[in-house]
Amino acid sequence: AQSVTQLGSHVSVSEGALVLLRCNYSSSVPPYLFWYVQYPNQGLQLLLKYTTGATLVKGINGFEAEFKKSETSFHLTKPSAHMSDAAEYFCAVSKNNFNKFYFGSGTKLNVKP
Amino acid sequence: DTAVSQTPKYLVTQMGNDKSIKCEQNLGHDTMYWYKQDSKKFLKIMFSYNNKELIINETVPNRFSPKSPDKAHLNLHINSLELGDSAVYFCASSQDSGGWDETQYFGPGTRLLVL
User: Fold this and answer.
1) C-beta of residue B17 within 8 angstroms of C-beta of residue B112
2) Does A101 touch chain B (CB under 8 A)?
3) In angstroms, rounded to a whole number, what is the distance separating the alpha carbons of residues A75 and A73?
């Protein structure tokens, strides 16, 4: 069975500081991995995804994530936080078995001036 | 043009009523989904349709019935609404049903409040 764990329901950083949002998955085979962002009162938007190939994935708005199979992790990072990055971030996993797509419980990012 | 649109945006209703939420996508995608996001922001898939056929039907009460008149529309009808149905419902679509590596495009959500 698939599960997704996002450590920390709330993360607060100062503007300009490093952003690190954690995501771990449990799966017997490498899944597909996604990060979505949800701004207040809006739907989810894809930030980036990993399917195959290079394990360091670059997404929109300066975000990137690295798939580490040995750690079953797909943490999201951004070198320098902007105020506009304040939002809820969801990690999601799936497998190509035409069956399941799981979201984590979300991490709310707060950026302080 | 909005890629995935939902109506209504807000829905407040009494327990026991029947209501529908509409979803339309103009992306030419083959697959559409309904998700429920509860008060704790936990997002869970409810249904998935591919070319008007039901693909995924998670453990959802049969009071919830999706209807897909064509592949650009996936409506969600809810009978006998209960307090616990209060949530934000998101519609989404993706290009192809064949792989779960597809990016899903989400609508803005419908905020349902059952009183």
Assistant:
1) no
2) yes
3) 6
CA angle, residues B22, B24, B29, in degrees to nearest 5? 140
In the block, tokens 């069956």 appear at A99
pLDDT tens for A54-103 read: 899 999 999 999 999 899 999 999 999 999 999 999 998 886 554 567 88
pLDDT tens-digit readout, B64-91 = 999 999 989 999 999 999 999 999 999 9
Chain B residues 7-66 with CB within 8 Å of chain A: 40-45, 55-56
User: For the residues of B24-91, what is the DSSP string, one character each?
Assistant: EE-S--SEEEEEEE-TT--EEEEEEEETTEEEEE-S--TTEEEEEEETTEEEEEE-S--GGG-EEEEE
Residue A98's pLDDT is 44
Instruction: Please count the other Cβ atoms lying within 10 Å of the Cβ belonging to residue A12.
Output: 13
**CB-nearest partner of A96 from B40, B42, B99:** B99
Report phi then psi at A71, rounded to 5: -105, 0
- B51 neighbourhood in chain A, CB within 8 Å: none
